[in-house]
Write a structure and sequence with these properties.
about 425 residues; alpha/beta; 4-stranded mixed β-sheet; UDP-n-acetylglucosamine1-carboxyvinyl-transferase, Chain; single chain; binds uridine-diphosphate-2(N-acetylglucosaminyl) butyric acid; 14 helices
Length: about 425
Amino acid sequence: MIIEQSPPLRGRVRISGSKNAALPILAASLMTAETCVLRDMPGLSDILVMKGILESLGSETFYDNENECMSVNAGKINEFFADYGMMNRIRASFLIMGPMLARFGKVRASLPGGCAIGSRPVDLHLKGLAALGADICLKRGCVEATAEKLRGTEIHLDFPSVGATANIVMAAVLTKGRTVIGNCALEPEIGDLCRFLNVLGADINGIGSDTLVINGVEGLRGGDYRIIPDRIEAGTFMAAACGRPGGNVVLENVDTSHLRPVIAKLREMGAIINEEENGKKLTVSAQTRLNASDIKTLPYPGFPTDMQAQFMALLSASTGRGVMTETLFENRFMHAAEMSRMGAQVKINSRVAIVDGVERLAGCPVRATDLRAGAALVVAALGADGITEILDRFHLERGYFRLVEKLRGLGAFVREG
Ligand code: EPU
């Protein structure tokens, strides 16, 4: 992607459906033999990989690119093994485990891949499924889970893992009896998954709290569901709007209740943010360079790790020193080295980055090392002097739908290289 020195961003942008809500919801479509119609489904490469995984198991899928709508029918599942070629491309592939186990009593899948941002184990997923009564066996890089009958139980997660919560919820929905999951993830994408499952006939209570109570049901029907707006895409556009003084961007199709930590941090740094239409729309502007601030990533509702890189780009051109602490993933500062090539002053010590703001970054060739690192380079480039060439654009295509088109709509000088 080539970004030439651009004017401050101005205009309107519509935020797409959430990738990280859509992925577990697609996995959950495996739990019913009836058709699921999923609206506001972004046509991202990660979504298409998940679609391919569902098809490889026997699901019939159709994606209407224009209307961003996917229909899935898992009425004829005939495969219970997902191989390395499929599973190593996205981490969320592992979310097929809970649904397949619950509906068919068996599943085998290669351990998952995904962005290289840390070791990313799946022990909490497996502990949860085992607590429900599954036999788990690890062999030659594959996990096999089988169960004659799962049984509701109490599970308390050691850590509120998003993926583990999703997998356990999905398994529990079709499990006889009551399952209580304590210390579960509070991320809005978990709430969206639960609401979708309830539309299909599940009985999940406590949505939005740290304890989910699931009364198992015999089976699920089909349903029609609209996916929540992507809070990380929204946050990325908010950061981009503040990257160069004078920006003024209206974001449509947002849920500001999911954006609290990002809104609070940007306001603290000097941005002006107005919420309208019951929190479905917001305007972001920054008249001057932002002030530095200290930021620590935490599980929701703390500051999202998926916004850490984009905020490092903002801190790099802010008026002081900001300390960024990454508590979720141990290897999520790879963008710092690329930003340093643009003139950013970043010192890293393990999970802490000290960022001294400079007046202006300078464009140069840089490489996206993962999805959000790529997003951070876009934010940095939009505020920088000169031309930035971002290599390995495919990372961005995993998580930002129609990015070039949306940025151009805001006046940025962006093109695909
Ligand atoms: N963890 C374990 N054991 C487990 C599961 C997780 O130790 O069994 C650890 C992880 O290693 C990590 C922490 O717990 O240190 C958080 O992991 P979590 O399971 O919560 O994250 P995830 O489900 O793998 C999702 C998003 C990520 C996002 C994180 C945190 C999806 C598909 N991915 O990952 O999104 O960073 O939650 O909010 O929903 C992205 O979109 O760029 C992205 C990486």
